[in-house]
């Protein structure tokens, strides 16, 4: 029986990753003035990990840590796949560091030209690890996995920079039998934010409450 357990690399890596994401404002916390996600959810946190690409030391840390985790957890695959558009940049950096080919997967097939959903060269039966920048519900990430499987690609697993750790994402990955590894997670982020006085104890409680039921949460 397959039991899905989302895993982070280790506590030191989770802390360090949370630290650098906060440092460059890739993750913004605003409990008093929440953000509105595309889904309509009100959120005291907004994550845009693409910003790490603008900081060479940090993007190098992310790519090297991801590459080590991929080899440790999955072995060296034939190809690295990035999920468009957020993970194209970091996925390509990881592939370059590992000396591997790179492809990326669109949300849907193009409506013109070759009508590709998978961009780049890959052959049926090859092993791939999918790189993602962020896991929220897991829907878009698993949509990429579905496209790869339909192309008869062997998906070894997925690696992401950060996960919110929602119950719905855990169930979604479990249902699709996909192993997920992440560099950091929501709890590690809150611990680091509190330690560095990025948030107060009161804000910590708000952020914890939101994470337990994000679709129904409203700022008070």
List keywords for this structure.
PRTase-like; 220 residues; pyrimidine biosynthesis; seven-stranded mixed beta sheet; globular; alpha/beta; Rossmann fold; two-stranded antiparallel ribbon; 22% strand
Walk me through this protein's architecture:
This protein is 40% helix and 22% strand. The chain has helices at residues 11-23, 56-74, 88-98, 139-150, 167-176, 186-195, 201-212; strands at 7-8, 27-29, 35-36, 42-43, 45-47, 79-83, 102-105, 118-119, 127-135, 154-163, 180-185. A seven-stranded mixed β-sheet has the order 1-11-10-9-6-7-8, with helices on both faces. A two-stranded antiparallel ribbon has the order 2-5. A two-stranded antiparallel sheet has the order 3-4. β9 (127-135), α4 (139-150) and β10 (154-163) form a beta-alpha-beta unit. The longest helix has 19 residues, at 56-74. It is globular, with a radius of gyration of 17 Å. Residues 1-5 have low confidence and may be disordered.
Mean pLDDT: 91
Based on secondary structure, the structural category is alpha/beta
Which shape, going by the Cα principal axes? globular
Domain unit count: 1
Helix percentage: 25-40%
């Amino acid at each position: 029986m397959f039991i899905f357990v989302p895993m982070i690399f280790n506590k030191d890596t989770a802390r360090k990753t949370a630290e650098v994401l906060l440092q460059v404002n890739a993750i913004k916390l605003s409990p008093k003035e929440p953000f509105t996600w595309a889904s309509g959810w009100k959120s005291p946190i907004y994550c845009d990990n693409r910003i790490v690409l603008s900081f060479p030391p940090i993007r190098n840390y992310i790519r090297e840590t991801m590459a080590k985790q991929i080899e440790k957890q999955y072995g060296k695959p034939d190809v690295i796949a990035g999920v468009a558009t957020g993970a194209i940049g970091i996925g390509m950096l990881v592939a370059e560091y590992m000396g591997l080919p790179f492809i990326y997967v669109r949300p849907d097939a193009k409506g013109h030209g070759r009508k590709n959903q998978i961009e780049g060269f890959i052959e049926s039966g090859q092993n791939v690890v999918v790189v993602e920048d962020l896991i929220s519900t897991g829907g878009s990430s698993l949509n990429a996995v579905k496209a790869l499987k339909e192309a008869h690609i062997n998906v070894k697993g997925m690696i992401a920079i950060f996960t919110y750790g929602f119950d719905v994402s855990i169930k979604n990955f479990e249902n699709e039998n996909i192993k997920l590894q992440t560099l950091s997670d929501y709890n590690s982020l809150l611990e680091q934010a509190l330690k560095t006085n990025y948030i107060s104890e009161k804000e910590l409680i708000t952020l914890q409450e939101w994470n337990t039921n994000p679709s129904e949460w409203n700022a008070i």
